[in-house]
Amino acid sequence: MEYFLQQLINGLTLGAIYGLIAIGYTMVYGIIGMINFAHGEVFMIGAFIAIIAFTLVWMTGISSIPLAILLVLLVTMIFTAAYGWAVERIAYRPLRGSVRLAPLISAIGMSIFLQNYVQLLQGARIKPLPPLISGGIVLTEGNGFAVQLNYTQMIIIVVTVVLMTVFTLLITKTALGRAQRACEQDRGMAALLGIDVDRTISLTFVMGAALAAVAGLMFALYYGVVDFFIGFSAGLKAFTAAVLGGIGSLPGAMLGGILIGLIEAFWSGYFSVEYKDVAAFSILVLVLIFRPTGLLGRPEVEKV
Amino acid sequence: MTVAAPPVAPGIAVWPILRDALLAGFVALVLAVPLVGFETVDVSGVGLGLNYRFGAVGVGVATVVIGRIALSLVALGHGMPILLASLAVTVFGFYRATEGDMAAGLVGTAAAVLAIRAAVSVWRRMPWPDDARFMAPGLVDGARRLAPTGFLALAVLFPFLPFVDQRVLDIAILVLTYVMLGWGLNIVVGLAGLLDLGYVAFYAVGAYTFGILGQTAGFSFWMALPLGGLLAALFGILLGFPVLRLRGDYLAIVTLGFGEIIRIVLLNWYEVTGGPNGIASIPRPSFFGMPFRAAPEDNETTFADFFGLEFSPVHRIIFLYFIILAMALAVNAFTRRIRRLPVGRAWEALREDEIACRSLGINPTNTKLSAFALGAMFAGFAGCFFAARQGFISPESFTFIESAVILAIVVLGGMGSQLGIVLAAIVLIGMPEFLRELNQFRMLAFGAGMVGIMVWRPGGLLSRRDPTIRLHPPRGPAAAGGRT
């Protein structure tokens, strides 16, 4: 029971990270109907910017950990968002209205480019981040096994919940959110009604990248190591999460992320660590076969 | 605020160009500062330290600003001076790069791209006489007809050319393997329009089929070859059957996931695949039962003995070269034939418009499945060959990057173009083998190239995305010229 509880906590933490990345996939898919293949790489860049920012903050001698994290969070979100914007501007905007495969291939190219760009600039070796926040609280103890909730895990879950709330309000209440939902339904009509479609799409990428940056920061905090290759498998799993929850649906992305995180945690806890990725990808295939619209998605209507 | 009329040249609005360039420079600055400006380094005891590289940031931002101004000028029709200037910078940059100045090399590359852009602009604006425009397509068509024969003759004679030594031949075999893989993937991506990101999985199935059978059951290459192809096709059907009903981009992700699953299984199923250690000492292919050995083992005839030649290790390599050449040509011939059959036409029709096809009674799932399975089969053959050539296989050889490289070959070559794939394979696989120093920039250039090609020529370099048949034949020289 204690072991189960511990896996539940680990899974939730992991799921929160996947969920944040998945939102980027789902929003972009909702608005322009393409898989932003480079999103995993944007997450990886976020993680790198986060560790660089942490090192800088350390050097300036700020010793208050909450302040440091807040500062790093802001810096990471801003700079990573710039990457998200640039990716859209360079690789996707010129291809709007092109054949379906073209933006996808360009996205794969972008993903390969970004991976090697970071590898060249920062080196191929694993970058360790010294553990900043140690300790935690023990929830229950029994059979010689203590269920622990790290402070890092608490921060991750709290930040995710706060961001999700802010984000939901942004989408449902503000003019930008309304413009986004309008573009999602009918881009041509939205343009006719005076919405700057290009700007809305750019902002969607910026928001997705900012959330991916938060995920990257938390990944770096949680695991303590970052390398240029983390974007690949995390991106794939986050995409799986987006599909599982129903692509195009924000709550679905979060739900999917948490489910994937739980599956991964329980699979590695009870079966085998080696095959945890196989479990996640198999889920993707199964969902696509039996319920292509995902858990909370709307069926897609194909029009001539 | 009013801006004084610039004295530079009449008709150039300086302020908008400058503003655009400064904006681009600002974005470049924001992008460059965190990742280019700081380098994380390991410091013992502390964990992480930082190196500063603000000089590189400055060079990068300046390149973007100047390049952006030049691009604006090219767009305004001042291609010629920009072309000359950028060529000069390219030469200078590459010259400095050979002396180890990496930043100069990158600036040179940027200048080269700019030069290409300027050259295209100059070419388009050139006041060609009318008949030159008509002659050019005729010439191009003539070259297109002759090129395959020329390439074929060159390929057959290649091992016997004087400058070809063992190393060159090894690279040629590698390039041909990728040509074969490219032609195989072309059936899936180019003809049927299905984006397969896990193509290397089928390659792996073929390689491990031969690896396992050759090591445990003593299968020879020629016995394992058909099995490898069939097994890969079977995997293709198993994977394709449930997922081919999905939309294109879902298929891409599922195939990507499948590729990863295969790799993880190969990595962890120690009892059968040897895990990360792979499978070693895979038997070499023999020439009709005659091995390539210096000394014959228990009463067998070696290849050299039979033909009365002196033994040389190059014989085996030439033999391998011809095997892969024949296999690749078989794929090519197969593709050209099947494009004329109903199933090949159905592939192309599906690529163009799936809904229309469904209305006409084509079963999309079965049609796609056939393309998928055939592509997988050819990858399986190529995998068998790979195992036979290397004599050793491990999961390292079958990563996602490998799939991406094969896809890049198909895409850069122009999806659907057979000759384009050969050229792309030579450029992408052959060149980096000769220029080992550039290896670290190879994948970077791959990615940037894929984006660039898609943005500027979504059809690929030598694109002929024409359906094999059309309802109305193209009319007049204008239509003929407008194809490329």
TrEMBL record, chain A:
TM region(s), chain numbering: 12-35, 42-59, 65-87, 99-118, 151-171, 201-222, 254-273, 279-297
Subcellular location: Cell membrane
GO BP of this protein: D-alanine transmembrane transport; L-alanine transport; L-isoleucine import across plasma membrane
InterPro entries, alphabetized: ABC_transp_permease (IPR001851), BCAA_transport_permease (IPR052157)
Topology with respect to the bilayer: Multi-pass membrane protein
Molecular-function GO terms, alphabetical: L-isoleucine transmembrane transporter activity; L-leucine transmembrane transporter activity; L-phenylalanine transmembrane transporter activity; L-valine transmembrane transporter activity
GO cellular component, one term: plasma membrane
Record's keyword terms, sorted: Amino-acid transport, Cell inner membrane, Cell membrane, Membrane, Transmembrane, Transmembrane helix, Transport
Stated family: Belongs to the binding-protein-dependent transport system permease family. LivHM subfamily.
Protein name from the UniProt record: Branched-chain amino acid transport system permease protein
Organism: Stella humosa
TrEMBL record, chain B:
Membrane topology: Multi-pass membrane protein
Domain High-affinity branched-chain amino acid transport system permease LivHM N-terminal: 18-75
Keywords: Cell membrane, Membrane, Transmembrane, Transmembrane helix
GO molecular function: branched-chain amino acid transmembrane transporter activity
Pfam families: BPD_transp_2, DUF3382
Gene Ontology, cellular component aspect: plasma membrane
Compartment(s) of residence: Cell membrane
InterPro entries (UniProt xref): ABC_transp_permease, LivHM_N, LivM-like
Major site of localization recorded for this protein: membrane
Transmembrane stretches, start-end: 12-38, 50-70, 76-95, 102-123, 143-164, 171-199, 219-243, 250-270, 317-335, 369-388, 400-429, 441-459
Signal peptide feature range: none
NCBIfam families cross-referenced by the UniProt entry: PRK11301.1
Protein name: Branched-chain amino acid transport system permease protein
